């Protein structure tokens, strides 16, 4: 998976306000993110296990929650 998704997940890990923004306005967040089409598809799957597998990252419970919430709204 591309480096932009890894960077995006790092930002989500570090910034609680950004996590709230992504959960509350996923369309705006995705339009601002520099993710490729494939990266967006993985993130927007709403499946934290899939995101973790694709990126090789260990995701915090807070980030897993963001991924699940975004998947519910899209």
TrEMBL record:
This is Extradiol ring-cleavage dioxygenase LigAB LigA subunit domain-containing protein.
